[in-house]
Design goal:
Elements (H helix, E strand, L loop, with lengths): L3 H4 L10 E3 L13 H12 L4 E4 L1 H7 L8 E4 L3 H7 L3 E4 L5 E6 L2 E7 L28 H4 L10 E4 L5 E3 L3 H7 L1 E2 L5 H7 L2 H12 L3 E2 L1 H4 L2 H4 L8 H12 L4 H10 L8 H10 L3 H18 L6 H8 L1 H13 L4 H16 L7 H16 L7 H5 L4 H13 L5 H13 L31
Parallel strand pairs: 3-6, 9-10
Antiparallel strand pairs: 1-8, 2-3, 2-7, 4-5, 5-6, 7-8
C-alpha cells in the first residue's frame, strides 16, 4: 500500500469519460423526483455544475423505481446553504447538505478529490481508513472516490446526458458488481464496502467481480473496528430492502454474518440447516413478502427472530435452575441483548419490542389463564405472529396456535381483525393483511 508521503507525489488521474446523449439512454425527467429537479435546476441557474448521481441513475437505467435522489455539485456546502433556505449542513467525516421539502430530504454533496492533493488535515488515518472526506475537487476527481462502478454514473442536468468514467454502463449490462480502483485499498479505506458489496449483489442480482470478491475473506476482520451504530444502520439496509433471504445467504457464504449477529452465527455453525436455519429463512422470507407488498417491517421483529434461538437455549438453562418460564425468558432476553449490543448498537424501542415478544412466548403457554390480559398486550399481535412462525418452522405448537386463534375470534376486545389460522404451512400463511398489524411488525 502506498504511504501518505508517496501518495502526495501521485498526479491526479484524468481520463476522458464516455458521454451518453439523451437520445441513447432511457432516463427521463419524468422519472426524477420533482424536488430533486428543483435542486438540480437551482444549482444550474446559479452557474454551478449539477448532476444526479448514484443509486437513482443506476435504478432508472435498470428499470427500477429509485427511492433516493442524490445530487452532486461543484458548489461548496456553504454556497449550497446560501441558495436554499431549507438547507442544513450535517456531518464532519462527510460534509453534506440536506435540503428539506416537507418530510423529504434531497442530499447534496460537493465533488471530492483524493486526499493526497491536500495538505490539510482532512485525510486518512494511519492504517489507511478514511476518517474525513472533505477534500474538494471536480467531477474528474469525484468519480474515483465512489465505491462501485454502477454507483458512479452522473446524469447531467445541463444537457440530460449520462457521464460514465469507469464502465458502469457496461457492468450494468452484463450484471456485474465491481469496485473502482484497487479493491484491497478500497476495503481498507472503508471496510463497510464489504457489506455494501453483499447488499448490492443481492438486491440487484449481480455477480461480484472476481477482483472485488477475492479480498473479502482476508479483510472482513476489519469490520470489527466499525462503530456499532454504523453496523446497525447497515443491518437495516441489508435486511429491510426486500431481499433479505438472498442477503442472508451471501453473508453466510462469505462468513460475514458473524460480525452482525455473532451469537446466532455460532449456533448456525454448530447445527447448520436444522430448526435455527429454517426459522431464520422463514422469518426473512416473510419480511421480504411484507416489504415487496408495500407493508412495513420493524427492526424489533427482525431482532427477535435473529436472536430467538440463543434466547430459547439460555431460557431452557434458567428453567432447569428452577426459574419460571416468564422469568427465564426475561433474564435470557436481557443477557442475549447485552451481548448483541456490544457488536451492533440497537435503539431501545426495538430491544424492548424483542423482549416483549420473547416473554409473551412463555405467557402464551398459559391457556385459559389471564387470556384477556395477554390479548390486550400492545405486542400481542407481533407475539402471535412469532408463534405462527415458530410453528411453521417445525415446533409442535398447533394446539397453542389454535387456542389463541380462537380466543381472538371469540373476544371482541382483542381487535377488529380476525387472526389467521395455521392451516397449511406455506410462507403466505404468515402474511399480515390488516392495517392494524402494521405497527407491530
Amino acid at each position: 500500500m502506498i504511504d501518505s508521503k508517496e501518495s502526495k507525489n501521485i498526479s491526479r488521474l484524468k481520463i476522458t469519460p464516455i458521454v451518453i446523449p439523451r437520445s441513447q439512454h432511457i432516463i427521463s425527467r419524468m422519472q426524477i423526483n420533482d424536488n430533486a429537479l428543483k435542486v438540480l435546476y437551482r444549482l444550474k441557474n446559479a452557474k454551478y455544475k449539477a448532476y444526479l448521481v448514484g443509486g437513482a441513475v443506476r435504478d432508472i437505467l435498470l428499470g427500477r423505481r429509485p427511492k433516493d435522489f442524490d445530487v452532486v455539485t461543484d458548489a461548496k456546502p456553504e454556497q449550497i446553504r446560501e441558495l436554499f433556505r431549507n438547507c442544513r449542513l450535517i456531518g464532519r467525516r462527510f460534509r453534506l447538505a440536506h435540503i428539506q421539502f416537507g418530510k423529504e430530504i434531497i442530499e447534496v454533496s460537493t465533488f471530492r478529490a483524493p486526499h493526497h492533493i491536500s495538505d490539510k488535515n482532512e485525510g486518512q488515518a494511519k492504517d489507511g481508513r478514511i476518517i474525513r472526506d472533505n477534500v474538494y475537487g471536480d467531477i474528474d476527481d469525484d468519480v474515483w472516490r465512489r465505491d462501485f462502478t454502477i454507483n458512479s454514473l452522473f446524469y447531467n442536468i445541463e444537457d440530460f446526458s449520462v457521464v460514465d468514467y469507469v464502465g458502469g454502463i457496461k457492468d450494468l449490462e452484463i450484471g456485474q458488481l465491481r469496485l473502482i480502483g484497487d479493491p484491497v485499498k478500497r476495503y481498507i479505506e472503508d471496510p463497510v464496502r464489504i457489506l455494501r458489496a453483499i447488499r448490492f449483489a443481492s438486491k440487484l442480482n449481480l455477480k461480484i467481480h472476481s477482483d472485488t470478491e477475492k479480498p473479502i475473506k482476508d479483510y472482513s476482520n476489519l469490520l470489527e473496528n466499525i462503530p456499532s451504530a454504523r453496523l446497525y444502520e447497515e443491518i437495516l439496509k441489508l435486511f429491510l430492502n426486500g431481499h433479505a433471504v438472498e442477503t442472508f445467504i451471501l453473508l453466510r457464504k462469505y462468513n460475514l454474518f458473524k460480525y452482525l449477529f455473532p451469537q446466532m452465527d455460532q449456533l448456525l455453525n454448530e447445527t447448520q440447516k436444522n430448526y435455527s436455519y429454517e426459522f431464520i429463512m422463514r422469518a426473512l422470507n416473510n419480511t421480504d413478502q411484507r416489504i415487496n407488498e408495500g407493508d412495513s417491517a420493524t427492526p424489533g421483529f427482525l431482532l427477535a427472530a435473529m436472536l430467538w434461538e440463543p434466547v430459547r437455549i439460555l431460557s431452557s438453562e434458567y428453567i432447569s435452575n428452577n426459574l419460571s418460564e416468564v422469568e427465564a425468558a426475561k433474564l435470557a432476553g436481557d443477557t442475549i441483548i447485552s451481548k448483541q449490543i456490544s457488536s451492533t448498537s440497537i435503539p431501545r424501542r426495538y430491544t424492548h419490542m424483542a423482549r416483549d415478544i420473547w416473554t409473551l412466548q412463555a405467557r402464551l403457554k398459559r391457556t385459559k389463564k389471564k387470556s384477556l390480559r395477554v390479548l390486550m398486550h400492545p405486542k400481542f399481535r407481533a407475539a402471535y405472529d412469532f408463534l405462527l412462525l415458530r410453528a411453521q418452522s417445525g415446533e409442535r405448537l398447533e394446539n397453542l396456535v389454535d387456542y389463541w386463534t380462537k380466543e381472538q375470534l371469540d373476544e371482541p376486545l382483542a381487535g377488529k381483525d380476525k387472526p389467521r389460522k395455521l392451516g397449511n404451512r406455506s410462507n403466505s400463511s404468515y402474511r399480515r393483511t390488516r392495517n392494524s398489524r402494521k405497527k407491530d411488525l
